[in-house]
Amino acid sequence: MEPPSVVKTYVDAWCRYDFEAVARTFASDGVLREPASEEQPVTRDQLKDYATKIMEPLLIGFPDARWETVALNAISEKFAVWQWIFRGTNTGAFGGKPPTHRQIELPGCEVIEIADGNIRNIQGYCDLLGFHRQLGR
User: 104: how many CB neighbours lie within 10 A of its CB?
Assistant: First the structure.
């Protein structure tokens, strides 16, 4: 079973840092929940600003940052799972600290619920503790 096209569009847009396109994949009442978010849940209307807010410091701290898909699977007609790894080298200031020049790998996954051809809900998970340990912090 292939993941729905809206899920593929979401993953592609996220990997290109096109957060307007990411938001367009969500239903009007769609939400994102994930560990890095101070606001729970992040609504479709908040999504572009939220994604920009978390990605700007990452792209400054990790200019070679990239998202790699490990797996993208449909688990039913209504659910898909995207397993990913965020990779980059800390060559810029990040979190108010100077670069460590360390390479990091941050694994994570998202459980994506689809309704009426749009994303209704995403629950994300990632290893933030491991991320900070890799930076030596």
Answer: 20
* Cis peptide upstream of residue 63 (ω within 30 degrees of 0): no
Total domains present in the chain: 1
Residue 37 pLDDT > 90, yes or no? Answer: no
The tokens for 46 are 């908040």
Kindly report the CATH number assigned to the domain that includes residue 104: 3.10.450.50
| pLDDT > 90? residue 22 | yes
For residues 8-37, average pLDDT: 93
Alpha carbons 90 and 53: distance in angstroms, whole number: 18
Say if residues 122 and 14 touch (Cβ distance below 8 Å): no
Domain of 63? 5-134
Q: Is the pTM of this model over 0.70?
A: yes
Return the DSSP state at 97: B
